[in-house]
Amino acid sequence: MNDTVVTLVGNAATGVDYRETPTGGVARFRFAVTPRRWDRRNSAWTDGSTSFYTVCAWRNLGANLTASVNVGDPLVVHGRLRVRDETLDGQRRTFVDIDAVSIGHDLTWGTSAFKRVARANTALTERPVDMSAAASAANAAAVGSGSGSGCDSDAGPGAVGKPVHTQPWLSEQDESAAPVGAAGVPTGPL
Question: How much is the pLDDT for 158?
Answer without folding.
Answer: 46
